[in-house]
C-alpha cells in the first residue's frame, strides 16, 4: 500500500483495550485537527487534508504553502 499508515495491537498485549481506544481516537477528526493545528504532520484522517486551506495553521497560514 502506498501512502498509507498502519498500526496494530499485539495479541498478547496486557493493554490491548487501551491500545484499541488510542487507535480509535487517532482516527477521529478531532485528533486530525490537533495534528494540523500543531503543524506536526499530515493528519491521519485524509478528510482533513483535501486542500491547502485544510492544512493552514498558525505556523504556515498561507494555503498555497501546502
Structure description:
By secondary structure, the protein is mainly alpha-helical. The chain has one domain. 38% of the residues lie in helices and 0% in strands. The chain contains three helices and no strands. The longest helix has 11 residues, at 16-26. The protein is elongated, with a radius of gyration of 14 Å. The chain starts with 15 loop residues before the first helix and ends in an 11-residue tail after the last helix. The model has no long low-confidence stretch (mean pLDDT 80).
Morphology: elongated
Instruction: State mean pLDDT (0 to 100 scale).
Output: 80
**Global structural class:** mainly alpha
Total domains: 1
Please mark out the parts with pLDDT under 50 across 5 or more consecutive residues, or reply none. none
Number of strands: 0
Total count of helical runs of at least 4 residues: 3
For the termini, the CA-CA separation is 23 Å
Strand-residue fraction? under 5%
Radius of gyration: 14 Å
Question: N-to-C SSE series?
Answer: HHH
Fraction of residues in H or I helices: 25-40%
Tell me about the biggest sheet? none
Which features characterize this protein?
3 helices; elongated
Question: What would you say about this model in short?
Answer:
The chain is mainly alpha-helical. The protein has three helices and no strands. The longest helix has 11 residues, at 16-26.
Amino acid at each position: 500500500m502506498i501512502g498509507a499508515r498502519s498500526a496494530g495491537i499485539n495479541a498478547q498485549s496486557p493493554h490491548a483495550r487501551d491500545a484499541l481506544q488510542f487507535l480509535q481516537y487517532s482516527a477521529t477528526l478531532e485528533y486530525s485537527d490537533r495534528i494540523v493545528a500543531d503543524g506536526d504532520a499530515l493528519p491521519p484522517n485524509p478528510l482533513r487534508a483535501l486542500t491547502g486551506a485544510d492544512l493552514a495553521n498558525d505556523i504556515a497560514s498561507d494555503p498555497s504553502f501546502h
